Amino acid sequence: MANTYTQISIHVVFTVKNRTAFISKDWRDQLHEYISGIINNEGCKSLAVGGWKDHIHIFFGLNPNISIADLIRVVKANSSKWINEKKFINDKFQWQVGYGAFSYSKSQRNNVINYIINQESHHQSKSFKEEYLGILDNFEVEYDDNYLFEFFE
User: What burial class does residue 34 get, using C-beta atoms within 10 Å of its C-beta: 0-12 exposed, 13-18 middle, 19+ buried?
Assistant: First the structure.
């Protein structure tokens, strides 16, 4: 689109579907790189991909020609297919339905990137449920407990 200029930074969080489908440290970095490639191939700009055993954080510059929902659908479909083809787990890997998406200004980028790349140390003291509910509260997002992720404690 001629004469269209944007700077839209989006942080998305989503989680694995089944308790047996945890993301192992043995292949976690490969998954993060793979997801980063999907984001870039879809015309967006991957800024950070990280996470922990039961969830993923992605931070990217959004191309205004693609919706967040379409991008996340492609990321989830392609990454779960890749995990299953690599046979990283014994069961079928799937992502839970839904995601959380949050926008940040350019001045906040470095803080978000550091937060995402330090997930392993962050989760030594805080569960994913505590983290996710904290994000929702910080962004003043109203939610129904019946429609939250299936959390693993």
Answer: middle
Q: Based on C-alpha coordinates, what's the Rg of the chain?
A: 15
| Residues 79, 38 contacting (CB under 8 angstroms) | yes
User: Residue 102's beta-bridge partner residues?
Assistant: 11
Q: How far apart are CA 125 and CA 144, in angstroms?
A: 25
**Taken in order 73, 117, 27, 133, is the CA torsion positive or negative?**
negative
- Could you give the domains of the chain? 9-147 (3.30.70.1290)
Instruction: Provide the 8-state DSSP code for 147.
Output: G
CA distance to 5, 6, 31, 45, 102, per residue, from 76 (Å): 27, 25, 11, 17, 18
What single DSSP character describes residue 24?
P
Q: Mind listing the pLDDT tens digit for each residue in 101-119?
A: 999 999 999 999 999 999 9
